[in-house]
Amino acid sequence: MTVDDRSRITTGVDGLDEVLHGGLIPQRSYMVTGRPGTGKTILGLHYLTAGLAADESCLYINLEESTADIRANAAALGFDLSGVEFLDLSPTADAFTENDQYYVFAPDEVESPGVVDRIGEEVRRVDPDRVFVDPLTQLRNLAPDDYQFRKQVNGFVQLVRAQDATVVFTSQATETSPDEDLQFVSDGTVELRHGERGRSLAVRKFRGSDFDSGSHSLRITGDGMVVYPVLTPSSHGREFTTDKIPSGVPEIDELLHGGLERGTVTILSGPTGVGKTTLGVQFMKEAAGRGERSIVYQFEESEKTLLERSQNVNIPVKEMVDRGTLAVETVEPLEKSPPEFASMVREEVERQDAKIVMIDGIDGYRLSLQGNEGDLERELNALGRYLKNMGVAVILVDTAESVTGEFQPTNSGVSYLADNIVFLRYLEMNGELRKAIGILKKRMSDFERTMREFEITQHGIKVGEPLSALRGILSGTPTFVDSPNPPAGEDTRR
Q1: Cβ of 73: how many Cβ atoms within 10 Å?
Q2: Are 33 and 202 in contact (CB under 8 A)?
Q3: Which residues lie closer than 8 Å to 92 by C-beta, 6 or more apart?
Q4: What angle do CA 3, 164, 191 make, to 5 degrees?
Q5: CATH 3.40.50.300: which residues of the chain?
Q6: 3-state DSSP assignment of residue 437
């Protein structure tokens, strides 16, 4: 049996409530575990200040850092703890003996009534809605053995529940002192990590509710913590019509039998410099004329380069950006994880109502985002399925290695993602390098199976008639059917 989302309380961390399918279940206990520096205390600050914002009473039991240090560190991140009650049980300077041996509490503090009784008294006095204990594992130093420690923790949890409070506590597990015993006491466990591929968060247990499993990206900024959940396409979708999006170039629309359908993924494939990005932006230019918004994510070029190049071929990208019908985002190398990038895309689709999303290009996506090859491909697959569910036309720019010669439909091995594959390639004709466009695959409708010459001019994209008189176009060195060597001066563009 799961708990209704309306009875949840927020963690205060952007993205974490989504992972927990609505937030924490009130009047239960939750453990936040992780090595030093992973952000456990910051999560607690979010939790407490979210309680203050909801007019709840909050108690911070600090067993390691002093109250003054906590307030100063919190203020540096923009957290105002002025409404939080503190029970400061942190060690003082005289906690060091002559032998430099560290004790958390003096012997008389451990004795009855002792620290556990002090905690009980403060909980009853404050009658808090939210309690944060940081770190609860310090109580292990007070107990003569693990059995007594677990007994004290159980007693504390029962006391807090009797006061109808929700408790979040941190754990500092080590190889010699693991925290598996605390996992059994808690109703939920959140693990924070900080590794070579960045920060992450995983929910290991959450009683009474489902949650999003997996390793979710986490970022700590000057404003605190943000979680970027792993994208689950099946959890998203909306009603849409699969009408076609034309390019505005009649010959291209003839090839596509009207255009690209909404809710499909299109791969634009071809070698460097053949015009893939320009072709993708051409669809966005036509969409802008209908008042629809599009976005380009640049992984391999700067926004300045795209603006200048597009302006030179009669695609007014700058004006589109100024009107809000186009957004251009340059993704810097290794700054974002795939879930963080997916969160950016979701923001554009769900809040800005973007109708076309172009990722330029697939190789840059793989090189620029944090993660291993398998994770990146899974995340790109999930992102494509999410966008399809949302009725967005997706354009993926894929660079083929060969300029001419043996034909390669795609180079990145993601052709299985595509509903449509549009390829551009170079041709050597009469000693001149030209370009051609063709359609290799289109799931939602029929398409023209001929190829046409493709040219980018100062007036825009120009596409010729079908190259029906040529053979061997895909080889890169086509020949004419009737005469492999046409007379000099004959127009080979027919």
Answers
A1: 15
A2: no
A3: none
A4: 60
A5: 5-228, 244-480
A6: strand
DSSP 378: H
**CATH 3.40.50.300 at 244-480, yes or no:** yes
- What pLDDT is recorded for position 102? 39
Q: Which of 17, 132, 153 is nearest to 63 (CA)?
A: 132
Give the SS3 label for residue 292: coil
Distance of CA 485 to the CA centre of its chain: 55
Counts for the chain of helices (H) and strands (E), in that order = 14, 22
Which of left, alpha, beta for 429 (phi over 0: left; psi -120 to 50: alpha)?
Answer: beta
pLDDT at 366: 84
Q: Answer whether 17's CB lies under 8 Å from 229's CB.
A: no
The amino acid at 249:
V
pLDDT along the chain (494 residues), means of 10: 69 96 95 93 98 97 94 96 94 48 43 68 94 88 76 84 92 74 86 88 94 93 94 94 96 97 96 94 97 95 91 95 96 87 96 97 84 78 96 94 58 79 86 89 93 94 87 65 48 41
Q: Are 493 and 464 in contact (CB under 8 A)?
A: yes
Characterize 87-112 residue by residue with b for buried, 16 or more Cβ atoms within 10 angstroms of its Cβ, and e for exposed: bebbbeeeeeeeeeeeebbeeeebee
Q: What is the largest CA-CA distance in the chain?
A: 107
d(CA 21, CA 356): 29
What is the model's pLDDT at position 411?
60
User: What pLDDT, on the 0 to 100 scale, is given for residue 93?
Assistant: 44
Output the DSSP codes for 200-222.
EEEEEEETTS----S-EEEEEET
Q: Which helix (H) or strand (E) holds 18?
A: helix 16-19
Looking at residue 482, its pLDDT comes to 63
Round to whole Å and give the CA distance between 14 and 276.
Answer: 37
CATH tag for 5-228 (out of 3.40.50.300, 2.60.40.2550, 1.10.10.410, 1.10.760.10)? 3.40.50.300
Please choose, from the candidates 240, 231, 235, 261, the residue with its C-alpha nearest in 3D space to the C-alpha of residue 390. Answer: 240
Identify the CA nearest to 133 among candidates 159, 151, 111, 101.
159
Distance in angstroms (rounded) separating the CA atoms of residues 101 and 471 = 86
> What would the two tokens of residue 80 be?
């105002």
Name residue, tokens 């390019």: 247
Angstrom distance (rounded) from CA 148 to CA 342: 47
Distance between CA atoms of residues 247 and 365, nearest Å: 25
